[in-house]
Fold this protein.
Amino acid sequence: MAVISSGQNSEHSASTIKQSPLVRTLGAAVAALPAYHNTYADAPPEFTEVGLRYSHYSEDNLSTDNFIAGARGRYDIDVTQLWIEAPIGSSWSIAVDVQNDSMSGASPWFVGTQVDGQPGVIMSGASIYDNRVEVGATTRYFWADGNAGFNVTHSKEDDYEAFALAFDVAWNSSDNSRTWSASASTSNDRVEPVNGNIPVFIDREDIDTASVYFGVSQILSSTAIVRIGLGYTYSEGYLSDPYKLFDARPDEHSRTALSGGYRKFFPEAQGALQIDYRYYSDDWGTDSHTAEVAWHQNFERFAITPYLRYYSQREADFFSVIADLDEEFYADDFRLSSYGAFTVGLRSSIQIGEWQVEGQLERYESDNDWGLYDGEAAPALVNFWRATIGISWRFD
């Protein structure tokens, strides 16, 4: 089972922003916001940083009202991440990241009809276990007005293997008030499903993916900054889910995402407002909107960030609550349905000498009635908790 990584690597490089002339134009609180760390790294990190982070993800059991057979208990995922980042000479840095994911639980196999005529979920058994190990290495070169990085990542689990390459670059305008950034990546994945308590019908398939991104951030004042970016991703190969009985998707998938963000630092409160928005559209008929608002409150050695995120998407063209097998493409996967979701969370960190301790707790809930688009309610929508704790050490 492929597992999505935690996506928090960008938070590792806070030390790299200290010497940037662009950052010095802003207040320290604005510069420290995680979403803009990578943009302003114009000098190698001053310190070597070693960190360890653990996250636990736990999905709620499937409701008895929507359950037909199998196991109601859904996924639990434990993620352990170790990283090290260090300067090399006056113009380079290197970072290595190792992540281990351990997953267990049950997942929806297909949607059928209950005795009352309502749709219900047939789950897999509870004996799904998988382990994924991902190793990534990044080298980065810095010059007076920008930086460029190259990343290699390999991921391996029982039934999925991926190898990815990525390149990114950022450069500042002559007056250091504007930063452009661009990136490109490619990934080659191999799917080899494992026959377990549910049957699979393929032996081995491949997926190729390429992505590009371009963005620009602009200082509006000594306490405010805005950013906008546009990304495009194209995949081809086996894009169906081999662990779902009724799932036949196109072998090509194009996705476009437009994102924007705004940060405003309030000196009197020693805090900063964060507002982000992302619009996504693909050629499978799915559109989505993501909006997030957060408040970053800074104290002398402590910071706390409450946040609220809203997400809504339109169902894919070939989605049906009960898959229509007469169509060329079909799926009853709840992740392709129309729904809305809210995430409420809290992040915090504390600095103790050369050590930093961080924590995060969030709750995610989804419902068809919360979405902006029409569509039948998928009975397998997920709710979950996620908790994270980490510690890092910086030294000369």
The longest helix spans residues 21-25. The first strand starts at residue 48 and ends at 59. Residues 1-34 have pLDDT under 50 and may be disordered.
